[in-house]
Amino acid sequence: MNNKSERKKKIIKALLKKKKDELRICIIGAGHGGLAMAAHLAIKGFSVNLFNRTKGHIKALLKGERKIKVEGKVEGFGKIKLATNDIKEAIKGVDIIMVVVPANGHEWVARACAPYIREEQIVVLNPGRTGGALEFLRTLQKTEVEELPFIAEAQTFLYASRKLGPAHAKIFAVKNAVPLATIPAHWIPGVVKVINRIFPQFAPGDNVFKTSFNNIGAIFHPALTVLNAAWIEQTHGNFDYYIEGASPSITKVLEVLDKERVSVAGALGFRAMSARIWLYTAYSATGKNLHEAILANPGYENIKAPDRLNHRYIDEDVPMSLVPIASIGDMLKVPTPYIKSIIRIASVMRGKDFWKTGRTVEKLGIKGMSIEQIRLLAVKGEI
Predict the structure, then answer these.
(1) Is the same domain home to 27 and 94?
(2) I need a surface site. Which of 103, 113, 223, 265 has the fewest CB within 10 A?
């Protein structure tokens, strides 16, 4: 065993020996998810720093008691240790960095953290969408970080949550289980053990390609938003996004998109779960088809639609979820005509070329790789 592996093992052991109140956590992002996660962890008794790139979004937490109100499945006030827009200050001395920003911000976060990040820290992308951990790794390598931290991605976000105010969030549901994978894959068991100290819901995933292709947001978010575009523009999102927006006919489109995603994963040799099975795994929601399973999920009740089309469900999920699936499909000669149609329509609606800005195989650094090489990349983190 080489020196690097020995060091990494010692780091994991040291983190596992720490007492609960000794673990230090930084949440990057004070949006719908980050605010909820920061409050929840603070209520659980952890030391929490909260970073947001835009100072105005954390203005209410810069002074005074620094308390975040949370309601819903978690109730109370979480007092954080620090709120800042200084990334150096935010991640200094912390053990776990939970990145809770739209996936098109992952590259920026990696570049911002690069001068200050340390080998003994764990970075978790919540979630990675498709190719998040790989992009984060590539970015740190490009900035010549010598000793890389542990890099992990969650398959999906732990909560269904919304930000209700500058220091106020609501958690509608907490998922039963969320797979987590690292790159390279052999760090998964140790990293999950550490993360389980703050969130028992995280479970070992197989590898980062498996978590990336089980990214169900790729199926639920872009198409549901595109196909409800007129309703969103007319009502400014004043309808239940899933319960009303996922009509029987629209859900048939989601099922076709889902089959394409599963087919591309299969070409890589990974068995991706269907969206219907995912609903059962994450929320215990059942149904004979996807439409019934969505309606059976209490976690989706009263979640309103986006109030506009310039929303992360398109601007994040199309380039960071659908584009990499379709691009890998092209490389492996797996047709994805329906996924590509949503990419094209969304690009027209938003006046953006999402294929150009998205995570293509070229940008992920896997263009021309064989299936064997891709699988080795997942296991070893290098070719």
Answers:
(1) yes
(2) 265
